[in-house]
Every structure is written in C-alpha cells, then in structure tokens.
Specification:
heterodimer; A: 230 residues; 4-stranded antiparallel β-sheet; two-stranded parallel sheet; 9 helices; 40% helix; B: 332 residues; mainly alpha
Chain lengths: 230, 332
C-alpha cells in the first residue's frame, strides 16, 4: 500500500530560481525507478532533497512512513537511505578496509564511551565488524576487479547469523543487477537460496533430482524426500 | 570465507601496533614511576625540560585529535590549557603541607577538575562554533584563546596580569609521563576503533561522511571536548611544575607552538606528533646551550630566528610533516 519513498509537491527554490517544482514521486518497496532528464533538469537537486542535503521550500517527503523534512543527512542515512555521489567521494586518508569499516559505525552498539573504555563486548564487536568488512571486500574483489561473466559463490552464508544473511542476500542481488553477471550459488541455507535464486537445481547423491523455479522445487516431492528422508 | 582473529591487523594503518597498547600504557606509567624515584639525582634544569616534554606531548597529541584526525583548525589550545592550569592551581592552593599520599590524591583530583573545566569550556566553545569550517573556525578559536587570556588578566582573585603563584610543586616525572601515556593511549585507541574512523572520515570529506550517517557536528564537538580535557590536564601539570602561572604564558604564540608540533609531526600521525613535541621542546634549549660556547654567542640573540627559519625550511620541503609517510590512494 504505502510507498517506501513518497514525494508530494516537493519544491525547492534558490532565490528566484525554482530548481524542483511540485515533484510527485513514489518508489515502492523493491522497486527500481529511474529519474532521467537533460542537464540542469534538477535530478541531482531532487537527489539532494531526498537525502536531506537541501530542505524543500514546500511540499512533503516521506520515507518509510515518516517525514524526512528537517532531518539532517546523517539522520536520513540512519533511517535507511544510502547514496553514491556523481564524483567519487571516498575517504582518501583511510585504506580500503577502513573506508568500508567507517560505514559500519552505523551498526555499532556503543558510542564514544564504548570506544574509549573498550569494555565488555568491544573486542568481539570490532572483530565481527572486521569479519563482515572482509566478507564484503572478498565478494567485491571478485565481482568488481576480476570482471567475470559468471561468479561462483561457495557457501557464502556459512557461519553467518540471520542479520548477516539478509545483508548477503541483498549484496548478491546487487552484484547481479549492477554488474549483469550470472551467479552460481552453492548453499545449504534453503531460505537464502529460495529467496535469491531464479532457478534451482537440486543434487542428491550426485544426481540431479530436480530443477526449476524456487516454488516448483519446493513443491517437488523428490526434493522433499531428499531433504526430509523417505 | 573463514576469517581469523588476525583480520584486525588489516585495520591498523598506524605505525603503532595497537594490540600491545595496554602493555605500552602500563609500561610508560611504570617507567615514569621508576624515573620519579630517581628524580633528585637528575639535574633540575633537565628535570624541567623533561616536564616540558611530557606536557608538550599531552598538548600536541590532544590537539592532533582536533587538528590532525578530525581536520578542524583550532588555534585556541593554549586557552584550554590556561583553564586547566588556573582551575587546578586555585584548588591546590587551598591546601597547606600534606603527606605524600594526601598530596598526590589532591593533585590527581585537581588535575581532573582542571581537565573537566577545560572540557566544559571546549563544549561551550565547540557547540556554536564547530558548524564553521576551516579559516572561520581558526579565527573563532583564536578569539576564544584571547578571551580566556584577557579574562584571567582582569581577574584579581587569581592575581590578574601579575600572575598566580602555585604553592605546591607536585608535578613529577610519574604524573607527566603517566598522563602523557594516558593521552596517547586514549587518542590512539579512540581513532583506531570503528567509531573513531568517523573522525578521519570527517577530516577527509564532510559531505560524504554525513551521507554515510556520521553526525559530523557531534564528532567535531567530541574531538574538541576530549582535546580540551587533556589540554586542561596539561595545564594543571604545567602550573604545578613552574609553580607560577601568568595569563601571558597561555597566549596565541603558545597555541601556535602546539599547532606547529602537530603540523611538523604530520597531521593525524600520533607517533610523529610525539617526536615533533620532543624535538620542538628540545630545539630552543639546544640552541640556547650552543650559544654558551665561544664564538657562538650570536646564536643567543638570533635563536628564535634560527628556530623560525628551520620551521620554514621544513614546511617547504616536507609539508606533509617530518614524520609522516602515509600515502593516499586518491588521485589529486
């Protein structure tokens, strides 16, 4: 029903110039929406309105059921809008690992006191962040640097908890869509496989016993038998 | 995709191996304690230079958190030092002669109070001004330092322009180097944490940092408050080493000296800044000593010129700092 992002008559004026005028835009959940136009049409300004860099002169912007008007960019990011920039903006003083790690502060449990006292759970948290950063980097290293046509992922969800698996699902989907590559995923986790794969082949004792769309495979009696036993 | 514990080593782009940070901290404190036991055998001239070095390290390393890691240009660090110096001195002046333990206990409390007073000043200055950038912030912090100096100059209760004598010379090697070690530990461990990477993100690109969910104002104020806290502690050490403080001793030139230490050491390089603090404390003294030799008397009058020339040459030849070797991956 309600869209994830909803702009209603969003308008911004810089002095006499109306850069974005009465823009109505809706983005539903899991929807991919394009925003196109010639140079100076206000695309980036619209982007800046959504991310809170600019505040609308009038109109409403709602994200996930809440208004983002008056919020700072970092607050909007925390709610779940992330952006890239036209010109690459990374942190040049930080190495690649730390560039990724810096963003993980969003998921930190503690604040500055936690970092200073290094109390209970501090080292475990830092270690788990380091692990997750490296996992991301490994996939990106393959998907971005090697430019493959086909990416094979061997149990990427092994040893991951539920949250990490959700992140992984999104990451794999992102890589597939963004880089237009095929992926073969070998995985134990049925939920992950069902969610992410368009087609599934099931092996049992070295023999392919079924192949098809996730729903078909799920309903296939041979698969159920193989998983649950006869 | 199995990752072992040594994965954390990846994150350490710093020269100091931070897995041994706590050992380093305790070692430095123990060394300070040991050294203070033999303090009466050290030539008092050198003893005071050691105090100066320790105090400079506290000042430079804490300023490095603001100017180096977070990339804010503060020119008022000596102002925070003054707040700490006067606060702690006023507190300890309430007490007469005390036993060893009572004296050190009171001293610790006074130093802490000085640090907290300076941190409060940092918060008060920081909240309204840290929305400013670059040059504007530099001017505001410069103004703050001067305001503190002028206020102290006109406060008769603390001696005004004549200065305030501090009754107790409680500063010793243990306190100076112990607290220098604590400062280094706190700043380095803060910056090395995932939370602390945000300081460097703010330094590199505020817009991108904000887009990544970093509350840039809060980070800047945090850096400012922590930096001011340690400057206040350094002020307390300074007051109880010299046993005499004047408002003029915390002027603009003092702030500049600490800024020079940070720039010379390499912004955002703790080890470099420590070395620069040692070097810049020893350099004027070394030149002073040289002037004592025959035919070198001219150094006496010109030593500040030589000092300035050396700095100019260093800045021209190594603008990234004397001890900084960090490379960036971004194209210019």
């Amino acid at each position: 029903m309600s869209a994830l992002l909803q702009l209603e008559k969003a308008t911004i004026r810089f002095g006499g110039l109306t850069a974005v005028s009465d823009l109505d835009l809706q983005i539903g959940r899991s929807e991919l929406v394009g925003l196109i136009g010639p140079n100076g049409a206000g695309k980036t300004t619209a982007f800046n309105l959504i991310t809170g860099v600019y505040q609308p002169t009038s109109g409403a912007i709602n994200f996930d059921g809440q208004s983002t008007v008056g919020r700072k960019p970092y607050q909007i990011t925390k709610r779940g809008i992330a952006r890239t920039f036209q010109n690459i903006r990374l942190f040049p003083s930080l190495n690649v690992f730390d560039n990724v790690r810096a963003v993980f502060h969003l998921h930190l449990h503690g604040d500055v006191r936690h970092a200073l006292w290094r109390g209970k759970g501090y080292h475990a948290e830092e270690k788990s962040i380091a692990k997750r950063v490296l996992e991301l980097l490994e996939i990106f290293q393959l998907a971005l640097a090697a430019k493959p046509k086909l990416l094979l992922l061997d149990e990427p969800a092994a040893g991951m908890n539920a949250t990490e698996k959700v992140e992984l699902t999104r990451l794999i989907r992102f890589i597939k869509d963004k880089f237009q590559i095929s992926i073969l995923l070998v995985e134990h986790d049925m939920k992950l496989v069902m969610e992410i794969c368009e087609r599934i082949a099931v092996l049992d004792y070295g023999v392919k016993i079924a192949e098809g769309k996730p729903d078909e495979v799920r309903a296939n009696p041979k698969v159920i038998a193989a998983y649950l036993g006869d | 995709m199995r990752i072992n514990a040594s994965a954390m080593a990846f994150s350490s782009s710093f020269k100091m191996n931070f897995r041994h940070a706590k050992t380093f901290l305790l070692g430095a404190i123990a060394l300070g304690l040991l050294a203070s036991l033999f303090a009466d055998r050290i030539n008092p001239y050198w003893l005071f230079i050691f105090y100066d070095i320790g105090i400079s390290i506290v000042m430079a390393v804490s300023l490095n958190l603001i100017n180096g890691y977070t990339g804010q240009f503060s020119l008022g660090h000596a102002g925070f030092m003054a707040v700490g110096a006067y606060t702690s001195a006023v507190i300890t002046n309430q007490f007469g002669d005390l036993s060893f333990f009572a004296a050190n206990g009171i001293f610790a409390g006074a130093l802490l109070a000085g640090g907290l007073a300076a941190a409060l000043a940092g918060l008060l200055v920081g909240i309204p001004t840290l929305r400013l950038r670059g040059d504007y912030l530099a001017i505001v912090t410069l103004g703050f330092g001067e305001i503190i100096r002028v206020i102290l100059q006109n406060m008769d209760r603390v001696g005004g322009a004549r200065g305030l004598s501090v009754m107790h010379g409680w500063t010793n090697l243990f306190w100076t180097f112990g607290l220098a070690a604590v400062t280094v530990y706190v700043v380095a461990s803060l910056v090395n944490s995932t939370y602390g990477r945000g300081f460097i993100a703010v330094h590199d690109d505020e817009v991108a940092a904000e887009a990544m969910g970093i509350n840039t104002t809060k980070y800047k104020v945090t850096a400012f408050v922590i930096g001011a806290f340690f400057a206040g502690i350094a002020g307390g050490l300074y007051a109880h080493a010299k046993q005499f403080v004047t408002p003029g001793g915390f002027g603009f030139m003092q702030s500049i000296t600490f800024v020079v230490m940070v720039i010379l050491g390499g912004m955002g390089n703790t080890v470099g800044v420590i070395l620069a603090a040692i070097l810049l404390t020893l350099l004027p003294e070394g030149l002073r000593q040289l002037a004592g030799y025959p035919h070198l008397g001219w150094i006496g009058e010109t030593r500040m010129i030589i000092y300035s020339l050396l700095l100019i040459i260093l800045m021209l030849t190594r603008p990234q700092g004397l001890f900084s070797f960090k490379k960036t991956f971004a194209p210019k």
